[in-house]
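Internal tracking record. Fields below are filled automatically when a chain is submitted to the structure queue. Please do not edit lines marked as system-generated. If the sequence contains nonstandard residues, flag them in the REMARKS field before resubmitting.
Queue: standard
Priority: normal
Entity type: single polypeptide chain
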Amino acid sequence: MIKRALVSVVLPIVVAFGLCYIQSPRAGAYLRYHLGLYDLKKEEKLLRKTIKQFNIDYATVFNTGGTTYVLDEYPAANLVKRRTYQEANIWAAQGLVLVYDRDKTIIEGIRFYGPFRAVVVAKELWFINFQDIKTRKYLSPLKADRIRVRYLMKKVPGKGWIVQDYEVYSDKEKVNTEVDKQW
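SYSTEM-GENERATED OUTPUT FOLLOWS
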């Protein structure tokens, strides 16, 4: 009797989860996330690595006047890539390179909004100056730029974490990992 009752309760649940998984292979990740079985420490490490690579590639695009050799590896959504390349190409068309040199990145917070979305807030120090695109002669003094950045992250199957968008703030502004529920 108890066995029959248990089967009548458990079997439909197992079948429902099985059908969900067939319909969406990502369902398993959502289930693990909501059951607390998702490896958040591993994902945090991957997010930190992605932010580091994003900043390296971002600087490379600007420092080279818009080279496309990092395009495939650049861990960013297409609109972020487009925005970066458009700005670098505007400077290059004027014979300028806006050189970014990242000195330091301190991750201040990471918040997950499910297994495929996260927000990372970082405090960053960049040194920036304009250079002639051909001679690389300094055309402006080196400027320290202290900022806070809120990165809206998305995990893409087969690619891993990418920067879906980012917001830049003054280093004096308080920035948190809260985002609009629509995101």
